[in-house]
Amino acid sequence: METATFLTGQFLLAMPGIGDPRFDQAVIAVCAHDEKGAIGIGIGAQVAGLGFHDVLEQVKIDPGETPNVPIHFGGPVETRRGFVLHSRDWSGQDTIDVAGKWSLSGTLDALRAIAEGRGPTRWLIALGYAGWAAGQLDGEMTRHGWLNVADDEGMLFDTDTAERWTRGFTVAGIDPKLLGNESGHA
Question: Is the sign of the CA dihedral 142, 128, 165, 186 positive or negative?
């Protein structure tokens, strides 16, 4: 019997020609993957015209001295639901540890802690997520579409959003310019 390979703590990179414009040059941080399915947060694109202060205002939290950083497009599912990918030095009521690499929180206590200066030292905010039913991601990984790469929290916190896709391929030892003439166009 073949043992399943789960991708929690890895990054999915959309291959050129993935066939879904929502995932053109997508980079997804896989936060949970097991026999029941998978959930990932997109970190390769930002929501145009939306900053962290806008999100805090919508949920009636004073931004304090918090920087008004851009918000990431986390994925096409529940696009009004917020998620915080953050360093492991803070934990809230629903925080999950992602393979000992980073943490994921999805409740207002994380936003409050960040705004009050008592949250994680490193973080990014996303709206929406990418989700897969049981076996769905495993099936997609056998077809052209996604490449999984193991990388560290530097992908999340030390790399500009626009550079994450290229970084992922570089980590995998692949020059993304050599992937095809239509690279970057789904």
Answer: positive
